[in-house]
Amino acid sequence: MSNVHVMDHPLIQHKIGIIRREETGSKDFRMMIGEIAMLMCYEATRDLKLQDVEIQTPICKMTAKELAGKKLAVVPILRAGLGMVEGMLAMIPAAKVGHIGLFRDPKTLEPVEYYCKLPADCEEREVFVVDPMLATGGSCIAAIQMLKNRGVKNIRFMCIIAAPEGVKKLQEAHPDVEVYIGALDEKLNEHGYIVPGLGDAGDRIFGTK
Ligand SMILES: O=P(O)(O)OC[C@H]1O[C@H](OP(=O)(O)OP(=O)(O)O)[C@H](O)[C@@H]1O
Ligand SMILES: O=c1cc[nH]c(=O)[nH]1
Ligand SMILES: [Mg+2]
């Protein structure tokens, strides 16, 4: 699974431990999701290309580094992905933001599309799709396909918790996509929830249950 990266940073693991706890309320849950997204963004951008640039410091001229190549975009899968946007932008403030609205039909577990608004030049950008949860994989596979249909070629997917079943499906559907995972869990239960997981991420971020 060379294009699947499971995070081993102790701060990420510690914060994931906090959001898993059932007693963690919406305020802390939301804050931690943002912090985890920021730390994961730091890790997932390690391989961005740099170029030399001649600058003048107050002391002398020098050759410094700046980001080269493609501009970036962050695309959260609504709703729960919204919780990761601020943390991503804290690391890459110049990124543009698109939105893809999908919810998972509770009976069929199939993703249902209800919104899509992307930056006009998204096909020229390196796009980070973000969603805290990768369960059956249906939602992220559909979101990535929507981006590919718009001509986007460079796509990375970032989630905080993933089930092995969904990771396998995502890899089969989109082997070209780099996948960043905060924690790889054990399995899905009969309702398509991740075990041990953290419950419904959207409901816990927005306090809707
Ligand atoms: O991998 P999958 O099986 O598709 O499941 C994962 C999806 O389920 C959740 O969204 P949900 O449908 O609960 O929508 P919400 O974010 O609006 O709560 C989650 O945020 C993912 O988008
Ligand atoms: O465990 C899960 C599965 C799908 N969506 C969630 O929010 N949690
Ligand atoms: Mg939900």
Short description:
The protein is of the alpha/beta class.
Strand content: 25-35%
CATH topology: Rossmann fold
Number of domains: 1
Low-confidence stretches: none
For the biggest sheet, the summary is: 9 strands, mixed
Structural class: alpha/beta
Annotation, overall tally of beta strands: 13
Task: Specify the overall morphology.
Answer: globular
Structural description of this entry:
The chain has 209 residues and is α/β, with parallel strands linked by helices. The protein has helices spanning 10-20, 26-44, 82-91, 138-149, 164-173, 201-206, and strands at 4-6, 50-56, 61-67, 72-78, 96-97, 99-104, 111-117, 126-130, 133-134, 154-162, 178-184, 187-188, 194-195. The mean pLDDT is 96. The chain binds 1-O-pyrophosphono-5-O-phosphono-alpha-D-ribofuranose (PRP), uracil and magnesium ion (MG). Magnesium ion binds next to helix 6. Uracil (URA) binds next to helix 6.
